[in-house]
Amino acid sequence: MATLTKISPSRKGPPRFGNRPHGIDTTVRTYQLTPEQLERLRAGEKLDDILKEDEGMKKTVIAYSKYEEVVAERDGLKRQLENLEQENEKLKKEFIDAHKLVTEKVKEVEHWKELFETTMSDKEQLHKENLILENEVQRLKELVSELTERNDRYSDEWIDLHKELRALRLYALEKLQKDVYGA
Fold it and tell me: What is the pLDDT of residues 143-175, one digit of tens each?
């Protein structure tokens, strides 16, 4: 049977670091690359090779406390970036909603445009019919005028014929009285 190894209580728990000087350099070195060097780094070239070629590169040494400030600032910037990303997502949603609304309005405008075109077409058709009816009314007025003139002429002829008939009746009556009673 296997036996378990016992662990000392001092070795249990989180690691402890002594107060003795350790001799480790806690400074952080930063390098500022040119855009061309940055492209080379992104392309897969090793940083050491890039740095060897450019001896005049600006090297900055900052203390660990300054590094902590930079890290804190970076964390703050990350939070701001996250907030901006959340706001960007909200704006994207608003943009999508606005785009949907604009699309609906465009469809509505197209519908109203079709109705307007139909109305204008109907208006033009009614205008043509109105002109035809006005021409028909004018023709009928001319016909009424012609018939009125004809009626007046026939009325005058009737009056003349009526007078002539009356005269003939009187003559016939006179002739009949002469023939019957003798004059």
Answer: 999 999 999 999 999 999 999 999 899 998 998
Q: What is the pTM of this model?
A: 0.39
Over residues 35-65, the pLDDT tens digits come to: 888 888 889 888 778 777 765 555 555 556 6
Q: Give dist(CA 100, CA 72) in Å, integer.
A: 42
CA atoms of 121 and 147, how far apart (whole Å)? 39
Find the mean pLDDT for residues 104-128.
95
CB atoms under 10 Å from CB of 12, counted, come to 7
**DSSP, residue by residue, the chain:** -PPPPP--GGGSSS----SS-------EEEE---HHHHHHHHTT--HHHHHHH-TT--EEEE-HHHHHHHHHHHHHHHHHHHHHHHHHHHHHHHHHHHHHHHHHHHHHHHHHHHHHHHHHHHHHHHHHHHHHHHHHHHHHHHHHHHHHHHHHHHHHHHHHHHHHHHHHHHHHHHHHHHHHH--
